[in-house]
Amino acid sequence: MNRKILITAALMLSIGSAPGAVYAGEPVLEQAYASAIISPMWTGMDRYSTDFSIKSGKAICAVIVESASSDKIEFSIKLQQYKSGSWKTVDSWTQKASPSGGIAKFSGSSTISKGFTYRFTGTLKTYKNGTLLDTCSITSSEEAY
Known about the structure:
- The protein is an alpha+beta fold.
- The protein has a domain at 47-144: Immunoglobulin-like, CATH 2.60.40.
- It has helices spanning 2-16, 28-34; strands at 47-55, 58-66, 72-83, 86-97, 103-111, 117-128, 131-139, 143-144.
- The strands form 2 sheets. Strands 3, 4, 6, 7 and 8 form a 5-stranded antiparallel sheet that branches. A 3-stranded antiparallel sheet has the order 1-2-5, with no helix packed on it.
- A hairpin with a 2-residue loop joins strand 3 and strand 4.
- It is flat, with a radius of gyration of 26 Å.
- The termini are far apart.
- Residues 17-35 have low confidence and may be disordered.
């Protein structure tokens, strides 16, 4: 009887200490991001980029969307000012564009006040033959003025 208990205990210990596929010392998530395994799965958009700058008292918001499979892209953009601990919308634009050569662009500008930090947020929507393919939320970098 003691021998059965000893064998069972040894078997359980050997199973519990068997090496697995993931080791504690390896940064698994960092490896996944570094090799671009994790990425959005859009249908109507390949990628987008944002550009936000402030020049001569004007905030300039720009978005470029690369799309090979949509025929219309809608940009809904909000220029925001950080004031009293929260972001407040100070201007907004909605624009629709048809990709030309697979690229659609949005650009808007607004006069701003000194002494605040600004950014823009928005929503990109892609369509094909009137059918919504994707909705993507975006946020630009922040700029102090």
